[in-house]
């Protein structure tokens, strides 16, 4: 009986409090707070999504430029991250001589050497490696030499404008010889190229 009266008194007290203006104000405040928290949560999610997008874009750009993120072999320690960044230099861009040799552009290589003939040391340094990129280095060198050795006697005079062209032909031959490795495998040269080189040598000797 006593418990029933206590329960009834509690219900009446709650009803009285629900009619209290202060109680209603608290409900309104809680509703406003819930709306503010909900708006904050939406803004936070939008910001997090934006940050994720930026992070993915940066990672993609780093990988494109040769920076690769790798995991450390040792287990992660509490005070040290287990992720390391290994820097790899981007692929070296091919030089003009390398591109010309690779594409077997003999006339363009002669023109390139003619323009840069004053930088003989530079040409000797870069041409042997570039000639190795040609599909058929021996044939390519013969094409670069041309038929300068068949020119008349006047072309070999000291004041002849053909002197520079002759220097280019001799230099490309010299650079080709530098591609040979004395201890390496013997270079395989096609029979047709050998015949052409032999005929050129005979004609050159006669001159």
Automatic annotation (TrEMBL):
InterPro entries: Frigida
Gene Ontology process terms (BP): cell differentiation; flower development
Entry keywords, A to Z: Developmental protein, Differentiation, Flowering
Family label: Belongs to the Frigida family.
Protein name (database record): FRIGIDA-like protein
Species per Swiss-Prot/TrEMBL record: Brassica oleracea var. alboglabra (Chinese kale)
Taxonomy of the source species: Eukaryota, Viridiplantae, Streptophyta, Embryophyta, Tracheophyta
């Amino acid at each position: 009986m006593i418990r029933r009266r206590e329960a009834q008194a509690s219900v009446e007290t709650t009803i009285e409090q629900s009619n209290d203006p202060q109680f209603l104000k608290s409900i309104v405040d809680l509703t406003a707070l819930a709306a503010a928290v909900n708006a904050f949560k939406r803004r936070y999610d939008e910001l997090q999504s934006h940050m994720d997008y930026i992070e993915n874009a940066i990672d993609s750009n780093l990988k494109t430029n040769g920076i690769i993120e790798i995991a450390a072999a040792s287990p992660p320690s509490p005070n040290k991250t287990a992720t390391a960044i290994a820097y790899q230099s981007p692929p070296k861009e091919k030089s003009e001589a390398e591109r010309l040799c690779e594409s077997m552009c003999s006339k363009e290589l002669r023109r390139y050497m003619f323009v840069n003939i004053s930088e003989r040391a530079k040409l000797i340094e870069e041409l042997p490696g570039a000639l190795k990129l040609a599909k058929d280095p021996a044939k390519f060198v013969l094409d670069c030499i041309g038929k300068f050795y068949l020119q008349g006697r006047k072309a070999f005079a000291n004041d002849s404008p053909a002197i520079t062209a002759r220097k280019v032909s001799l230099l490309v031959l010299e650079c080709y010889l530098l591609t040979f490795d004395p201890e390496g495998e013997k270079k395989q040269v096609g029979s047709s190229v050998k015949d052409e080189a032999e005929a050129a040598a005979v004609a050159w000797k006669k001159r």
